[in-house]
Amino acid sequence: MMAIPVIAIDGPSASGKGTVAALVAQKLGYHYLDSGALYRLTAVAAQLQNVAVDDETSLAQIALDLDVVFAGQQILLDGNDVSDALRSEAAGVGASKIAVLAKVRAALLDRQHAFRQAPGLVADGRDMGSVVFPDAQLKIFLTASAEERSQRRYKQLIEKGISANLADLLNDLRDRDARDSARTVAPLRQEDDAILLDTTEIGIADAVNFVLKNYELAAGVQVNY
Ligand SMILES: Nc1ncnc2c1ncn2[C@@H]1O[C@H](COP(=O)(O)OP(=O)(O)O)[C@@H](O)[C@H]1O
Ligand SMILES: Nc1ccn([C@H]2C[C@H](O)[C@@H](COP(=O)(O)OP(=O)(O)O)O2)c(=O)n1
Question: Which NCBIfam families does the record cross-reference, listed alphabetically (predicted)?
Answer without folding.
Answer: cmk (TIGR00017)
